């Protein structure tokens, strides 16, 4: 009986030891996670970076175009003719010829009905085509009073064609209109009637030139 008990204790202890050995061995044989996978898991769950929401871009607003520079000179131009005389460059549609060496007068009265003159100028003498010019350098005065600026007949180069015809009353001036032509340094105005005219006085023959 004693030997059987002793044998049981020996075999029982050996079985327990064997079981423990198997358990430990199975533990070591299980796959152990790598350091990299542990770091990735840790980074994923504990330190995952969340990108901030993108800042909305402001709406594009184009810069306003720079204001055009004011003109440095105003040009007023026109033509003076001699009515009913067939001279050089005769215009049959107008029945008139350009009158060389004639002049016109530009007058701008101050706005407000004061009757005071802000500008008064004499044109260049007309060329062979009857063209004359005013070069107005007092731009501010002209611009401020442009609505009251008028062009008048001033002088004829010959007594054979010196009677006012357009306008017939020399005290009446012709209004101006700004031309659509755009220039960088000057604005251009012309007389609305298109031309000024003289004619021969009654009983006087036309000039020969």
How would you describe the overall organization of this protein?
- With 209 residues, this protein is of the alpha+beta class.
- It has a domain at 73-199: Immunoglobulin-like, CATH 2.60.40.
- The chain is 22% helix and 28% strand.
- It has helices spanning 2-29, 35-46, 139-145; strands at 73-83, 96-98, 103-109, 117-122, 131-136, 149-155, 163-166, 174-178, 186-191, 196-199.
- Strands 1, 2, 3, 4, 5, 6, 7, 8, 9 and 10 form a 10-stranded mixed beta sheet that branches.
What is the H-and-E element order?
Answer: HHEEEEEHEEEEE
Please give the CATH class of the domain at 73-199.
Answer: Mainly Beta
- Report the span from N to C terminus: 169 Å
| Counted beta strands | 10
Strand content: 25-35%
Q: Mind describing the biggest β-sheet?
A: 10 strands, mixed
Query: pLDDT under 50 segments (min length 5)?
Result: 4-10
Features:
209 residues, alpha+beta, Immunoglobulin-like, 10-stranded mixed β-sheet, signal
Topology record:
Layout: H1 2-29, H2 35-46, E1 73-83, E2 96-98, E3 103-109, E4 117-122, E5 131-136, H3 139-145, E6 149-155, E7 163-166, E8 174-178, E9 186-191, E10 196-199
Parallel strand pairs: 1-9, 1-10
Antiparallel strand pairs: 1-2, 1-5, 3-4, 3-6, 6-8, 7-10, 8-9
